[in-house]
Design a protein that fits this description.
It is rod-shaped, with a radius of gyration of 37 Å. It is mostly helical. It has one domain. It is built from five helices and no strands.
Length: 203
């Protein structure tokens, strides 16, 4: 006894034109977002270097000013003490709270702006592509309800650029053929013609 293993899809490219168009329209924005993200990382690294250099320079300038503020001609011991102080500061720089705060502020601003722009781009793409699908789907649903209610004059007209143009055309053809059959069955045509139409129906 044969067992039903279910439907297994072997070909993923059913409508190559439509699927290729969607792949291209999704791939290009993704590549743009990737390039933007890489640019953001580069800009963030440059910002970190700039911020770090600026803080170190300011701290060293402050140490020099404090160390030599009352000395017209500093001694070698004073220079030696300054160098030791600078070495200690550089060694402990990674734990400096001022540096951490400035760095976090720069990173949050850069990545926050980048993430916001990416979210806006994804939202716009989602609205654009869903609109090209949601509109035809809504129109098809209304047409189906109209036919269920007995209206066989229904015709679907989609906007240029909408998806499912082929499906809309097939739906219109189906309604037209069904309408012609029903007119034939209700009309005064020969009984053999009617019998031929009924015999071809699968009910």
């Amino acid at each position: 006894m044969a067992t039903n293993t279910g439907f297994v899809r072997k070909h993923f490219f059913i409508n190559r034109e439509m699927q290729g168009r969607y792949m291209l329209t999704f791939l290009l924005p993704m590549l743009i977002m990737l390039a933007f993200f890489l640019f953001t990382l580069y800009f963030a690294s440059q910002s970190i270097i700039t911020t770090t250099t600026k803080i170190i320079k300011e701290e060293i300038d402050n140490k020099i000013a404090v160390q030599f503020q009352d000395q017209q001609q500093p001694s070698a011991a004073a220079y030696s003490l300054l160098v030791r102080g600078i070495k200690t500061y550089i060694r402990d720089f990674s734990t400096d709270q001022k540096y951490r705060k400035a760095l976090m502020g720069s990173l949050l601003w850069i990545f926050g702006s980048g993430i916001f722009l990416i979210i806006v781009q994804v939202a716009l793409l989602t609205i654009f592509f869903s609109h090209k699908l949601a509109g035809p789907l809504y129109r098809l649903e209304k047409a189906c309800h109209s036919v269920i209610d007995g209206n066989y004059d229904e015709k679907i007209t989609l906007r240029k650029g909408d998806e499912m143009q082929n499906l809309a055309g097939l739906f219109n053809e189906m309604i037209a053929v069904t309408r012609d059959r029903m007119k034939t069955l209700k009309g005064p045509e020969d009984g053999e013609i009617k019998d031929g139409i009924v015999s071809n129906l699968k009910l």
